[in-house]
Design goal:
Blueprint (H helix, E strand, L loop, with lengths): L7 H7 L6 E4 L12 E5 L4 H4 L3 E5 L5 E3 L16 E8 L6 E7 L8 H7 L3 E7 L9 E4 L11 E8 L4 E9 L8 E8 L9 E4 L9 E6 L9 E6 L3 E6 L7 E5 L11 E7 L6 E6 L7 E6 L9 E2 L16 E4 L2 H10 L5 E6 L5 E6 L2 E6 L9 E5 L7 E5 L5 E6 L2 E6 L4 H6 L2 E5 L7 E5 L6 E5 L2 E5 L4 H6 L2 E4 L1
Parallel strand pairs: 1-13
Antiparallel strand pairs: 2-3, 2-21, 3-4, 5-6, 6-7, 7-8, 9-10, 10-11, 11-12, 13-14, 14-15, 15-16, 17-18, 18-19, 19-20, 22-25, 22-33, 23-24, 25-26, 27-28, 29-30, 31-32
Length: about 475
């Protein structure tokens, strides 16, 4: 994110503005023996890159892209793009939320419009297990701010003093006709409703602030319960003993060669079992994404150390503003099982070999020359129920599967129910028309198979040669 008004025009041209306000919280903190870290992030501009991606690390420095480097959640609401995600874990670990900026640059909006008349909403998803996510919803956070022009870079932290969350984000409220982003906050308990927004951080004069991330310190470490890093022309560090209390300026990272003209978007992580922290910074000026700097004392600007290029690896995708969660062993197991690097495939019709199974407006049929190509792309996952079974997850709409209802097929979001799992699960068997191809037998109606009829996908019993041809497919790249 740009930190000062004078940099805005250059950043529009470079198209590498990014916005993040984030917090690492104490509840359900991973134990020293727990093995890994999860990063939620986006990867760049455009409708596909401005979605939700996940990466995993066992050491906090070397990252592997999950899901083959493809998105794991897609926004179908608002601007239909999302940036700057924060991942919030409830105090008891029973719920998770992803909250993100409702923004899609180069796919319907430009930077000027998004700064001066952007979405006042955030996009929110909810989960009870970190792998199955609700449909997204819009949370209007800036609509009640007088002359508020947008809502960027959300974050939330549990406040033990009031037993609710402090949700905060950046909004442009112009000063003397000029752009000035400030951090606002509101309270919420469910991310559906909020209290009246208030100013949280407002730098003097025309100085903007957009990126802020707070980390809670372990008891007995340092002089402050909380340390925050902000992009406000520099990467500024502050300390406080209360989330909404007085913050003390601790200095900035320019002394270790990291100026606001080079880096932005600070993202904290705590190394498991060590009194060591990483602060990831986005190298926006050189368009290189995140790099880590390490410290044993987040409150001391002079203690931060840059790392040699060979000592870390960010994986195959560019990591843009996001959030790092210290995983418990159970969370890590679920996440890695849910998003392996399963190949992308298409289902080719046996008796109309120029046609492939595809979704269009969530209806399912077979068509030739499918455009866009990802309408016909699926990942053949281990079945949602049973053993030795398969389910078909959409590449374009992650979390959506081919499902039959009343023997008709739709592309539907997995709601986590046993009925959905049964309806979206199949047994891959030798092709009914050609044993070198495949047919797909329904898990909960084993006398029926996936077949096409008048180019529509159906679930039918098969008794004729025509039916056997209609029910035979090849999984191909």
């Amino acid at each position: 994110m740009p930190a000062v008004l004078s940099r805005l025009a250059a950043i529009f041209v470079a198209a590498c503005l990014l916005f993040t306000a984030q917090v690492v919280t104490t509840p359900q903190r991973a134990a020293a023996a727990d093995p890994g870290y999860l990063m939620v992030h986006f990867t760049g501009e455009g409708a596909t890159n401005q979605q939700m991606y996940l990466s995993h690390s066992t050491d906090g420095l070397h990252w592997n892209d999950l899901n083959g480097g493809a998105m794991v959640l897609r926004s179908t609401i608002g601007t239909k793009g999302v940036r700057d995600p924060a991942l919030v874990r409830s105090p008891d670990g029973s719920k998770y939320w992803i909250i993100a900026t409702d923004l899609c640059i180069s796919c319907g909006q430009d930077w000027n419009a998004s700064i001066n008349n952007g979405s006042r909403n955030l996009v929110v998803w909810e989960s009870s297990d970190l792998v199955s996510w609700s449909d997204p919803w819009l949370l209007n956070v800036a609509g009640a701010i007088p002359d508020g022009r947008n809502a960027w870079a959300p974050e939330a932290i549990w406040d033990p003093e009031t037993n609710d969350y402090v949700l905060y984000w950046a909004t442009n409220v112009p000063l003397n006709g000029k752009t000035k982003h400030r951090i606002f906050y509101a309270r919420t308990s469910d991310f559906h409703t909020i209290s009246t927004p208030q100013i949280y951080i407002d730098r003097p004069g025309a100085q903007e602030i957009i990126d802020t991330q707070i980390i809670e310190m372990p008891s007995g470490v340092g002089n402050y319960r909380y340390v925050r890093a902000s992009g406000d022309g520099q990467i500024t560090l502050e300390g406080s003993n209360s989330i909404l209390g007085t913050w003390t300026d601790l200095g900035n990272l320019s002394g270790v060669g990291l100026t606001g003209a080079m880096v932005e978007g600070p993202m904290w992580m705590k190394f498991n079992g060590q009194n060591k922290w990483g602060l990831y910074l986005d190298q926006y000026a050189s368009n290189r994404g995140y790099m880590p700097v390490l410290t044993t004392d987040p409150s001391n600007p002079a203690s931060y150390q840059t790392q040699a290029a060979g000592s870390y690896n960010m994986g195959g995708t560019k990591k843009r503003h996001g959030w790092i969660l210290n995983l418990t062993a159970a969370e890590e197991s679920r996440v890695l099982a849910r998003w392996p690097n399963t190949p992308v495939q298409r289902l080719q019709s046996y008796n109309f070999q120029d046609r492939y199974v595809r979704q269009t407006n969530f209806d399912v049929r077979i068509d030739p020359n499918v455009s866009p190509a990802d309408d016909a792309q699926f990942r053949m996952r281990p079945g949602l129920t049973g053993t030795g079974t398969v389910s078909f997850e959409s590449v374009k709409f992650p979390g959506y599967f081919l499902r039959h209802a009343n023997y008709d097929f739709q592309l539907v979001r997995n709601d986590g129910t046993a009925q959905f799992a049964a309806d979206a699960t199949f047994r891959q068997v030798a092709g009914l028309a050609d044993s070198t191809w495949s047919s797909f037998q329904s898990y909960n109606h084993p006398d029926r198979y996936i077949r096409h009829y008048a180019y529509q996908l159906r679930l039918d019993p098969i008794s004729t040669a025509t039916g056997r041809g209609d029910a035979t497919f090849r999984a191909t790249s």
